[in-house]
């Protein structure tokens, strides 16, 4: 967790002194310097606010403290020897009365030294979390080689709580410790929420439960439409970010184990033949140019392939709600009708080695086939169009609305649109908005907080650009008014 006021104040090089009594274990999430009479519009809560009291008077001291307490700041650091020789009596009295921690900052201590110290402590905590999560993932991987029971036992010990592995019906397969088996009864009524399909055709991946004395998280195991099982973990306190990463690793390992096909022996032999340079000895390995087919039928695809000898020379990969099939080019005429009966199919161009590109082609063709209500659509038959015009309007608008909702609630859509249009260049975005770069930086920090992701990550900016383009297209075809105009970004 972040450093506390007590640990920050204990740093001897800073010389901080509490004027309001013993320091609580209040976490400090950041340091903010402000001489404003009301800095709270620029705070999020949890900050150590530093000031010289430039605008502080005996008349406004109590109101100043009240605003900081209402915003939930961690504490106030007051520099003496700059504007005021000592901490003003009115400020000290208000802080003691309203429960605000007040630290006296000596004249030789610059504010930036306090900011750097807290930043270093936050960075050390983040590095410790990453290291802990990485080590835990290695331990889970080793345990998974023994079996799911060993993995569940290791996970419970890593979290300092309990863990249950349930089968698709909700019955207990493994429990750690054994007494955790009794908790399955409280979890069972909630499992239908993880089996039920959502409005966009997907399924919920996890849920959190309010259980007396426990914070419980339940994760769905499996990639297809029907879950292969469920993983439930419980701890005495809410899971921190690093613990969620550890649970996610356990779910991924259990999913890999559960999705291994029963006919995996032949598939492994085929892969081994390729690795050994002897594809002729692997009858399942397609020879020559191949096509990749993206099939909406999902779980029905393997059954359809097994109904015809041509399917024996195809390789199938489940991909969530759909499936990808590698088909020898010469068998396409026989395989297409088989798979068309399971749902819409998208077909790539012939490929020799770049199968990832062929998969992308097939999935684009599948999306167009679903929209056009075609049984089979080949990538070569798609009209020339940008990526936005390939999006399904319903799910695309749902995606845009969900991603932009927290920004709309905070009035930050225009700010983020300028930032994305400027390709993450703060100066250009600030000029487009007509605001100071520090104001833009503060707004973007808030945007990152409400989004739960970093807009400086190119992948995140790409998602935001797509969402903004979809949103600006309204009910019309996607991609017309959302495309970024040339030149400097402009905000209407």
Report on the structure:
With about 500 residues, the chain is an alpha/beta fold. The protein has four domains: about 5-110, Udp-n-acetylmuramoylalanyl-d-glutamate--2,6- Diaminopimelate Ligase, Chain: A, domain 1 (3-Layer(aba) Sandwich); about 145-260, 2-Layer Sandwich (Beta-Lactamase), CATH 3.30.450; about 265-380, Reverse transcriptase/Diguanylate cyclase domain (Alpha-Beta Plaits); about 390-470, Arc Repressor Mutant, subunit A (Orthogonal Bundle). Helix content is about 45%, strand content about 15%. The chain is built from 17 helices and 15 strands. The chain has helices spanning about 5-10, 60-70, 90-100, 110-145, 150-160, 185, 190-195, 240-260, 265-275, 300-305, 330-340, 355-370, 395-410, 415-420, 425-435, 435-450, 460-475; strands at about 15-20, 30-35, 45-50, 75-80, 100-105, 160-165, 170-175, 205-210, 215-220, 230-235, 290-295, 315-320, 320-330, 345, 375-380. The strands form three sheets. A five-stranded mixed sheet has the order 1-5-4-3-2. The chain has a five-stranded antiparallel sheet with strand order 7-6-10-9-8. α4 runs parallel beside α8 and α13 (about 395-410) crosses α17. The longest helix has about 35 residues, at about 110-145. The protein is globular and about 90 Å long. The two termini are about 40 Å apart.
